[in-house]
Design a protein that fits this description.
With 176 residues, this protein is an alpha+beta fold. Helices cover 26% and strands 29% of the residues. The chain has helices at 2-23, 28-40, 72-81, and strands spanning 50-54, 105-109, 123-126, 130-131, 137-147, 150-161, 164-175. Strands 3, 4, 5, 6 and 7 form a 5-stranded antiparallel sheet that branches. The protein has a two-stranded parallel ribbon with strand order 1-2. Strand 6 and strand 7 form a beta hairpin. The protein is globular and about 65 Å long. The termini are far apart.
Amino acid sequence: MKTMKNIFIAVFIALCISVAAYAADIEPEEYEVYAAIFASGKLDGIPFGYIVLEKETLKEKIRKDGWKDADAFMVDDFNRKNEREYPLEDKFPKYKSPSDHRNLNIEVRGQRDKSFGPFDMGRTSVSRVGFNKEKTKALVYVQHVAGPEMGVGHYVSLDKTGGKWTITSSGIGKIF
């Protein structure tokens, strides 16, 4: 009887932890990854320096064998976090572009009209970030849609060295 009670308590605690993790806000480390990507200017078709982001993250999935730089833990973390959309907040760190030392400016806007106007800069969106166990490697999907049939999405792999995130590789995920 005591064993069943201990098993029940362990299952209940595990369930509470997983529910809390699922409902958790976006981690500060994820905002650091986003800032490193948008400061880099390394992704074709993705704006850098001044970014206007959609208010919610994208729902995105990746196959376990779909990304050579990601271990199974990172892929699972990425897929679990990206089962639904999450609201982005203005929690981006102050960041200077490594190439020209300009200040990075990231702005989060509410849901916009889905049509494109003549002065529309397009829509930039991100997924949640998947990390390895040590949080030294990251995987994220970022896309920019400039018009009804113009846009690109990249899967981006980053490493953290010396306290800074840097892009190590990327692959095109979608072309619009």
